[in-house]
Design goal:
Layout (H helix, E strand, L loop, with lengths): L13 E6 L1 H4 L13 H12 L4 E4 L7 H15 L3 E5 L2 H4 L6 H17 L3 E5 L12 H25 L2 E3 L22 H26 L4 H7 L14 H14 L12
Parallel strand pairs: 1-2, 1-3, 3-4, 4-5
Helix pairs in contact: 2-7, 3-5, 5-6, 7-9
């Protein structure tokens, strides 16, 4: 089974990807799964909506956040994306010299610049490889501390810059050692499929929220679309504009992805 094409109504036509090996899509093949990165799978879903979608992936392995900023941001901005994916900071967190405040400022510049140029920006938390038991015990504690700090600063940047966030650190699949490549750093194709599924879920939620903000609908249509029960006659009256605002706020809070319940190949 492939990632379902669930991005109907997606407004994005130009996708830029910046970052390190996670953005590049470094992976290991896995039996039963297509050898696609999570970026490949997202692009596939977007292509189903618009075959003319243009994709620029600038991701390169081994780069620190400051190197991503210096070598990729200008090219990404020149591409004029309306959707951008940022995955950086992981290589910084692998180092004992990791300075979270510095990386946070660098990501703020990258994400803020892309958002300021009009792109919707997606950020990604890394899966918790320490939970898988693959990290030697003598290294697990220090690495876990740095990865927690990376996840926390990623969340702060996303919140500050209004970016969409794919929350993978707490995903239950993180504890499955069968998702990781032999280098014990990257995911295999199965892991990429799971991340892609969650990213598509976040994008789908963003499309829904945008639609609620832009489309004028009645209370009855709103309730029917969201499968909510109708109000008792004469006992429930909410102005249409208030209903739209309240529902958009409610759906915004639901953008956090739930653990995937399907097997994606």
């Amino acid at each position: 089974m492939t990632v379902p094409h669930t991005l109907s109504g997606a407004p994005w036509r130009r996708l830029a990807v910046v970052g390190d090996s996670i953005a590049e899509g470094v992976r290991e093949p896995h039996d039963g799964y297509r050898d696609f990165s999570w970026i490949d799978r997202i692009a596939e879903s977007l292509h189903a909506e618009d075959p003319q979608l243009e994709v620029l992936n600038l991701g390169r392995r081994n780069l620190l956040a400051r190197e991503v900023l210096a070598s990729q941001l200008d090219a990404a901005l020149s591409f004029r994306p309306d959707l951008a994916i940022v995955a950086a900071g992981g290589n910084d967190a692998l180092r004992r010299s990791f300075a979270p405040d510095v990386v946070e400022r660098e990501l703020d510049v990258i994400v803020g610049s892309l958002a300021g140029a009009g792109a919707d920006v997606v950020m990604l938390e890394l899966m918790d490889i320490v939970a898988s038991g693959l990290v030697p015990p003598e290294h697990a504690g220090p690495l876990d501390e740095r990865m927690r700090a990376l996840a926390a600063l990623t969340r702060r940047v996303a919140r500050r810059q209004g970016a969409l966030l794919v929350e993978m650190r707490g995903h239950p699949a993180s504890a499955d050692p069968g998702l990781y490549a032999g280098d014990r750093l990257h995911l295999n194709a199965r892991g990429h499929a799971i991340v892609a599924g969650e990213a598509v879920r976040v994008l789908r939620s963003a499309i829904l929220v945008r639609g609620l903000r832009e489309v004028c609908i009645t209370e009855a249509e709103l309730l029917a679309d969201l499968s909510w029960p109708g109000p008792p006659p004469g006992e429930w009256r909410v102005p249409q504009r208030s209903a739209r605002r309240a529902t958009a706020r409610s759906m915004s809070r639901r953008i956090r992805p739930e653990p995937s319940r399907i097997t994606i190949q």
